From TrEMBL:
Superkingdom: Eukaryota
Organism of origin: Bauhinia variegata
Record protein name field: Uncharacterized protein
Amino acid sequence: MENKIKNSKVEDEELEEEMMMEKFYSTLRNFRDARDRRRKQLDELEKNDKKKRKMKIAKQETTKTSSSWVPSFEREDFTTELELPFIFPTPCDRTGVSKKETHKDVSLDLKLAL
């Protein structure tokens, strides 16, 4: 009787070990499958990204070549006299104004206010 009990315990342990090994190998297979799927996704994304970059570069090249307006100047552009609507005042025109007031009017206030 003892022999049968020992045999059944040994068989149970062997079955348990086999089940654990199967579970381990199935986990490994699942991990490899997930890794392979992720690699494929990344490869597809990279291919799409390369295509987008190529299309963007091609689009930029076509826009560069398609610009038809080139600025040009002719001698007549610089020979005409300009008439300004006002005359710039000279600093010596200010009589009766102190130097401090003149300096305030002309200079910019560069003080930082916090």
